[in-house]
Amino acid sequence: MATSAVAQFSDTYSTVKVVSESPDLNSIPSHYIHSTSLDASPEDSKAIPVIDFSHLTSNQSDQWYKAIQDLGEACEKWGFFMVVNHGIPESLIREVIEVTDKFFNMPEEEKKRFEGKHVLDPVRCGTSFNASKEKALFWRDFLKVFVHPEFHCPSDPRAFRDIMLEYCESSRNVTKKLLGAISESLNLDERAIYNALELDSMFQIFIGNYYPRCPQPELAMGMPPHSDHGLLTILIENQVGGLQIMHEGKWVNVNALPNSLLVNTGDHLEIFSNGKYKSVVHRAVVNGRATRISVATAHGPSLETTVGPASQLVGSTSSSQGARYAAMKYKDFMYSQQSNQLDGKSILDRLRIHGN
Ligand code: OGA
Ligand code: NI
């Protein structure tokens, strides 16, 4: 007897989109129930940091300096911020969401062609997170595509390729600029993160998330509490909220400003900064009103880089901080996270060096 509550599906799992479209669905199947899912009541915070991207490129030094300070503080206190005036056209963001919606709306047999078998397959769609390992499934279908340093893309819908190419390049450019500013906020050279983590071949993943309307949203979970691997994740959505971040021990709803990018710090920024900047724990909740679509672009070091704390941030005197994390190859870290159950910061926790 398999331990998984979903053992009735052997090789493949029905998408939650299909489940949600069953006629007269008034309650969710029992293997989608997360009894402790919505225990804490979330807050609506107006205090989520907002970074004006144009100030990071401004040549007015006061404005630039303040933006660097604000960014450093956002990384330290929140691990999360919204970026405005980022220069990515609103129309492109809309197209990304629309074509992702089209992908999930293709007939199930068509999507099956992109199912992938292994967590390192460059194009992989499926349901939940790791359905074969989970006791209860998440109310989410996904598409994950490796888009840099090598670009991959599902062959359908046809329009996907050009839109994905353009958006992923724009989001890499925003990320590089933010990471340069974050380097400076750590009192390092602007190129410090770029050079140490070999961002010429930064690993970038496009993740489309599809959370159908759910008849019992309080019992279901879109994505469990987790932190992202990598450095920065940029998220856009179809104007239906659902992202929550953990801040000072409480869940906070993210109500996106119009045309903003939602950015969270990842585990490798925590490691590189030797714990000064923490990767933020976040989750996705679902709702009974509308289907939510989000697209995350995750940006990490080059896969072959072994990432440890920056040497400049690890003190050499006895009174200063030693390395607080063991180094690990990014590819191994990523594989480990993707092939297990998604569980808070469990992979990062294994690298923590206690006593420092
Ligand atoms: C993710 C993620 C949250 C969301 O894809 O890693 O955290 O709001 N998504 O869809
Ligand atoms: Ni995430």
Automatic annotation (TrEMBL):
<dbReference type="Pfam" id="PF14226">
    <property type="entry name" value="DIOX_N"/>
</dbReference>
<dbReference type="GO" id="GO:0009805">
    <property type="term" value="P:coumarin biosynthetic process"/>
</dbReference>
<dbReference type="GO" id="GO:0005634">
    <property type="term" value="C:nucleus"/>
</dbReference>
<dbReference type="GO" id="GO:0005737">
    <property type="term" value="C:cytoplasm"/>
</dbReference>
<dbReference type="GO" id="GO:0016706">
    <property type="term" value="F:2-oxoglutarate-dependent dioxygenase activity"/>
</dbReference>
<dbReference type="InterPro" id="IPR044861">
    <property type="entry name" value="IPNS-like_FE2OG_OXY"/>
</dbReference>
<keyword id="KW-0963">Cytoplasm</keyword>
<dbReference type="InterPro" id="IPR026992">
    <property type="entry name" value="DIOX_N"/>
</dbReference>
<dbReference type="InterPro" id="IPR005123">
    <property type="entry name" value="Oxoglu/Fe-dep_dioxygenase_dom"/>
</dbReference>
<protein>
    <recommendedName>
        <fullName>feruloyl-CoA 6-hydroxylase</fullName>
        <ecNumber>1.14.11.61</ecNumber>
    </recommendedName>
</protein>
<dbReference type="Pfam" id="PF03171">
    <property type="entry name" value="2OG-FeII_Oxy"/>
</dbReference>
<keyword id="KW-0539">Nucleus</keyword>
<comment type="similarity">
    <text>Belongs to the iron/ascorbate-dependent oxidoreductase family.</text>
</comment>
<feature type="domain" description="Fe2OG dioxygenase">
    <location>
        <begin position="198"/>
        <end position="301"/>
    </location>
</feature>
<keyword id="KW-0479">Metal-binding</keyword>
<dbReference type="GO" id="GO:0002238">
    <property type="term" value="P:response to molecule of fungal origin"/>
</dbReference>
<keyword id="KW-0408">Iron</keyword>
<comment type="pathway">
    <text>Phenylpropanoid metabolism.</text>
</comment>
<comment type="function">
    <text>Involved in the regulation of shoot development and salicylic acid (SA) homeostasis.</text>
</comment>
<dbReference type="InterPro" id="IPR027443">
    <property type="entry name" value="IPNS-like_sf"/>
</dbReference>
<keyword id="KW-0560">Oxidoreductase</keyword>
<dbReference type="GO" id="GO:0046872">
    <property type="term" value="F:metal ion binding"/>
</dbReference>
<dbReference type="InterPro" id="IPR050295">
    <property type="entry name" value="Plant_2OG-oxidoreductases"/>
</dbReference>
